[in-house]
Amino acid sequence: MEISFRGKKVFVTGAGQGIGRGIAEQLWRTGAKVVAVSRTRSHLETLQNEYPSIDIVELDVGDWDKTREVIESLGHFDALVNNAGIGLCQPFLECTPEAFDTTMNINLKSIINVSQVVAKKMIENKTQGAIVNVSSQASKAALKDHTIYSASKAGLDAVTRAMALELGPYGIRVNAVNPTVIMTAMGRIGWADPDKANTMLSKIPLGRFGEVSEVVDAVLYLLSDKASMINGVELPIDGGFLAT
């Protein structure tokens, strides 16, 4: 199955590294005009060095007003990937209001903000676009020390469903992907401890963690016309974790 985004303009947040970078790169390979967003300039510069035609935007999506101003200035998009996120892990009894506010601001509030601006432009231009929100298996299952993170991702799943309901009549599809642990550069470091890794791996029927490409492929499919009747879905990419 061949997927092409030739002639499409796609906005990707959290595109400086990891899953977001993988999505931006593969969208570029399939012909998209990619606008890659990150708050870390050095990550964006290395991305543009490899792919000079990718437009880069240094932006902290946690800043509501600045984010709206920047996205408004970039014009119309055919698709959006909300990948920017933060994970602050604390035991339930030690959760702080600062961690709650910071996490919800990035993982939930910023996605509503970005999506509002992009979706309004889609509607104005009568574009039957697609939006994919990067959620987590943590929205569906309890994970130790993930109280606030899990709540933010469960909220994101709810927002995804609401967006699908309200934007669907305009021909705009909205879906989420819910990955397990993914072997990004940070993931390989964070899960290098065999005891920690084996506890999680024992709950995954396929017996391994995911690769970045496996999330990228799912996201591109959901963005593409091949998924034209898929709307409001939360797709686990977890090797069966949620089936157990």
From TrEMBL:
Methyltransferase as UniProt keyword: no
UniProt keywords, alphabetically: NADP, Oxidoreductase
A GO BP annotation: glucose metabolic process
Entry's Gene Ontology molecular function annotations: carbonyl reductase (NADPH) activity; L-xylulose reductase (NADPH) activity
Domain of life: Eukaryota
Family the entry assigns: Belongs to the short-chain dehydrogenases/reductases (SDR) family.
Quaternary context: Homotetramer.
Protein's name in the database: L-xylulose reductase-like
